[in-house]
Automatic annotation (TrEMBL):
Catalytically driven reaction(s): D-mannitol 1-phosphate + NAD(+) = beta-D-fructose 6-phosphate + NADH + H(+)
Residues that coordinate or bind NAD(+): 3-14
InterPro entries, per database record: 6-PGluconate_DH-like_C_sf (IPR008927), 6PGD_dom2 (IPR013328), Mannitol_1_phos_5_DH (IPR023028), Mannitol_DH (IPR000669), Mannitol_DH_C (IPR013118), Mannitol_DH_N (IPR013131), NAD(P)-bd_dom_sf (IPR036291)
Domain Mannitol dehydrogenase N-terminal: 1-185
Enzyme Commission number(s): 1.1.1.17
Protein name according to UniProt: Mannitol-1-phosphate 5-dehydrogenase
Top-level enzyme category: oxidoreductase
This protein's UniProt keywords: NAD, Oxidoreductase
Organism of origin: Cohnella hashimotonis
This protein's encoding gene: mtlD
Amino acid sequence: MKALHFGAGNIGRGFIGLLLSRAGYEVVFSDVNKTLVDALRERGEYTVTLADDKQERIRVAGVTAIDGTDLAAVASAVAEADLVTTAVGVNILKHIAPGLARGIERRIAAGAGPLHLIACENAIGGSAQLKAHVYGHLDEETRRGADAVCAFPNAAVDRIVPIQHNEDPLAVTVEPFYEWAVDASVMFPDFKRIEGVHYVNDLTPYIERKLFTVNTGHASAAYLGNLKGYETIQQAMADDALVGEVRAVLDETGAVIVRKHGFDPEAHRHYIDTILGRFRNPNLTDEIARVGRSPIRKLSPNDRLVGPALLALEQGNEPDALAKVMAAALRFDYPDDPESAELQRSLADRGAGATLAKYTTLPPEHPLLLLALKQFEALAAELQS
Ligand SMILES: NC(=O)c1ccc[n+]([C@@H]2O[C@H](COP(=O)([O-])OP(=O)(O)OC[C@H]3O[C@@H](n4cnc5c(N)ncnc54)[C@H](O)[C@@H]3O)[C@@H](O)[C@H]2O)c1
Ligand SMILES: O=P(O)(O)OC[C@@H](O)[C@@H](O)[C@H](O)[C@H](O)CO
C-alpha cells in the first residue's frame, strides 16, 4: 500500500508520515524543499524523537520523496497511490491541486480503485477546500468520474511540532500527545483503517473543539506573549498573569463549544488543563514566530479567533478576551512573515479599524470589531504609558 503525502515538513514527518508508516504504508512525500526531498530519497528513513523525559527515538523507514514542482511526477504518484494526505498549510492547497487533478484524470482513464484524499491542515473543512481547488482543474465529465472514485474526508489533527533546529534535516522532535480525527461519513465502504486515527461520523465538534481550544489558546499565548517581549510559548506560559488571560479566552471558547456541541463542562475543563500543560512542555522550545505565523489567516472569519468570537456573540456573550487577542494579533510584527508584513503595512496605511474590517471581512460597525478596536486602543494606551 502506497500513501502519497504532500508536505515533508514538521507535521508531515513528525505525525502523518509516522502513523502511515506504522500502519504499513510505503510513504512517498511530495515537497518543494530540495534538501528534504534529496535526503528522504537518499536515506529512505528518518527519526522522530518524543519530547518527554524518556526522549524515545522512533525510526520511520520505507519512505521516499518526489519533487513537488515536477507536475508529471506528482501526477504519476497520485495515479499510483492508495491514499493521499496533505500537511502543507491551508493556503498552499491551491498549489498542489493541478498535480492532483492530472493524477485523478489518469486514475479515471485507467479504471483505478477509490481514493481518499485527506487534508491534515488547521482549518475547518480543509479537505473540502482541497476538493474545490482540485475540481477547479477538472472538466465537467471528469468531475462526475471523480465523484465516483474520490472522497475528500475532512480531518482534525493535533500534535505540537515546533520548528526544528537539528543538524539532520530529517530529524524531528514532537510532543508525545496526538489526535487525528477523520470524517468517516464520506468515506468509501470497507476502507483500510489507520491505527491511531479516530473515525467519526460528524467531524464538526472535533475540529471546532480542537481549533477553538488548542489553536485559539496557542494563538493567545503567542500574540499576548509577543506584546510582553517573549520569544517562546514556554516563556509566555511561565507568566501567571498571561496564563490567566489565556484561560479567560478559553473560558469564552469553552462556553461556546460546550453549548453548541453539548460537551460535558467538567470534561472540557480537563481538556483545557491538558492543553495548557502541553503548551508548557519543558522538553520543547516552540517559537512565538511559528505559533503566531500567518496572522491574516488567523484573523479570517472561520478561524480560531473570529470564528468562536462570532459564535459567542450569537449566544449572547461578549467575547472581550478574544477581542483582546484579535487586537494583539495586529501587533504581531515579524517582517519575515509575509502576512505579518502585509498586516503592518495595512495598519500604518489604514489604521486598526479598517485593517480589522478588511481581514475579518466583517462590516466596520460590527459589534466584534468595535470590541476589538476598544481593546486595541487600550493596548496602545498601555504600551505608551
Ligand atoms: N506543526 C504543528 O504543530 C502542526 C500541528 C497540527 C497541524 N499543523 C498544520 O499542518 C500544516 C503544516 O504545518 P507544519 O508545521 O508541518 O509546516 P512546515 O512548514 O514544517 O511544513 C510544510 C511543508 O510543506 C512544504 N510545501 C510547501 N509548498 C508545497 C507544495 N506546493 N507541494 C508540496 N509541499 C509543499 C514545505 O516545503 C514544508 O516542508 C499546516 O496546515 C499546519 O497548520 C501543524
Ligand atoms: O499551524 P498554525 O499556523 O495553524 O497554528 C500554529 C500552532 O498553533 C499549531 O501548529 C499547533 O502547534 C498545532 O495545531 C497543534 O496541534
